[in-house]
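General statements about sequence and structure are easier to judge against a single worked case. In the encoding step, the backbone of a single protein was reduced to a row of integers, each denoting a local shape. The record that follows shows the chain in one-letter code together with its fold in token form.
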Amino acid sequence: MSATSLPLVFDAPRRGMPPRHLADLSADERRAAVTELGEKPFRAKQLAHHYFGRLNADVESMTDIPAASRAKLAEHLLPPLLSPVRHLNTDDGTTRKTLWRAHDGTLLESVLMRYPDRATVCISSQAGCGMACPFCATGQGGLQRNLSTAEIVDQVRSAAAAMRDGEVQGGPGRLSNVVFMGMGEPLANYRRVINAVHRICDPAPEGLGLSQRSVTVSTVGLVPAMKKMTAENLHVTLAVSLHTPDDELRDSLVPVNNRWKVAEVLEAARGYADHTGRRVSIEYALIRDINDQPWRADLLGKLLHRHLGPFAHVNLIPLNPTPGSKWDASPKPVEREFVRRVRAAGVSCTVRDTRGQEIAAACGQLAAEG
């Protein structure tokens, strides 16, 4: 695919976008919206307390708000966003994938994963993905549309409520981490994703109150957006889906590489690391006989040591199978040798604990089929 024909969209049209929601708005915008509806400004804080603080989106249960006001506020600030179509569980009930239907019928998925020391939700920022990486089921399905800020945030609110209510094996608990690694390229829906990060991390009741350091935003390497994100003064973790250190192979594995080459992507990542002091996670899906050669491990270690130094951490991902795909995971001995060689270059490297393969909930498997 040539650079000129690459279907890269930084901000897809608002086709099918839901009506305005409380979570789309800043605190000041909420107060203005409530006032426009003829309500007292403090109603905005009441709504935020219920939605963000109590994880409640049911206006009828908000009994501290007069009954006469509820319907109006529900219509204009808390419209229904996502309805669960089904939940699928695996890993002894500690991993749950949810298929959501948006107001316009759009389907998307999120995955809630409980570990002994944390609970992480993997959320979608787009319905589908336009990056066209051939080994990823989501990318092969194409892009349907961007998600709104509120649609992104509501996946997190729902996961936090599920943990609180003990819906995941292990009893009641607390959501601790959010990763933008579900469907879509987060930085191709830039402004809504950045706004969603603020809603997720602003202190309750203005937001969900998670630490920015517990949020990870991934990208395949949209260099201008990476630089723009650096200037936002956020402290989220940046994850770069690199998948190979050489431009020749990456041009086909990650088609956006036709626009921004490996060195440019790593330099933009270094800029983020220098600005934030945060380590950058380099995502690398290890594919049998494609990108798992010893020389590629050596080159990866060399490039990361040069461009990122102590800020580099390689997150090696055994490729997750997708139906009908010719791609397969590398054998364990190959994987171990790859890790050894990257570490020998002085770069931190670990293998991701693969969750949810049995229910197509693992990295690269989300396809949101109804």
Summary: Residues 82-359 form a domain with the TIM Barrel fold (CATH 3.20.20.70). The radius of gyration is 21 Å. The longest strand covers residues 82-90.
